[in-house]
Amino acid sequence: MAESQTPVSSSSRADNRRPNQLRPIRFQNHIAPYAAGSTLVEWGNTRVICGVTIEETVPRWMKEQGVKGGWITAEYSMLPYSTLQRKQRDSTKGKIDGRSQEIQRLIGRAMRAALDLDKLGERTVWVDCDVLQADGGTRTAAITGAFVALSLAVKKLMAEKKLAQSPVLNAVAATSVGIVNGRPLLDLCYTEDVGAAVDLNLVMNSAGEFIEVQGTGEEATFTEAQLADLLVLGKAGIRELLAAQEKALTQG
Q1: Which residue stretches of the chain have pLDDT < 70?
Q2: pTM greater than the 0.70 cutoff
Q3: Which of 201, 186, 246, 230 is nearest to 18 (CA)?
Q4: Where do the H-state alpha helices sit in the chain?
Q5: Which of 20, 23, 46, 176 is the 20 to 30 Å CA partner of 131?
């Protein structure tokens, strides 16, 4: 079935982007020297540090159930100063809030889709994503940056001869799309996100396959045609993000 053509309006957004334009994205690799792989992803005014550490063991449940290969898990947090009003640390509340828990599970699922866990070997990969500054799209920035950090960690394992071959299956990236004031938009900043009638997060790999689609109408409904338009926008954005990741990894 042919893809719907997304209408692109000439009217600008709050930050003067076109409806189908990503915010500027940049990766600063090796931001955390003690991590096996790390990057600071700057995506518009959203900034997330993604760091990977590796344990040469697997979770107990894998041993008990006889599950072979390795495991990837993630943690996500927003630092107290990442938002206009101070955000209380989860540690002071004694539990992880529901939003953070949902996002870190999403990051974990996305990264497990990126690697062949059998080739990873019996080790656990921890992916930590810490939001320094939030202006919308923190989960998509975390996923997109996490893959870069994960790839750097794999490179290090291979350089240390701990892996015979790369376990990376496909690159993974994520972006948001939404309908704001009746228009489909790519990569929502915070002001657009809070005003969106429809909000959708899209996670895909470099093979063009979907890993996760999270979409909801915010006190609104949306049609199949509108969904098709959003997917066209999102897929185009993902292709740009994959190219940015590849460039960041080529530069080391």
Answers
A1: 1-11, 91
A2: yes
A3: 186
A4: 60-65, 90-93, 98-114, 117-120, 138-159, 190-194, 224-250
A5: 20
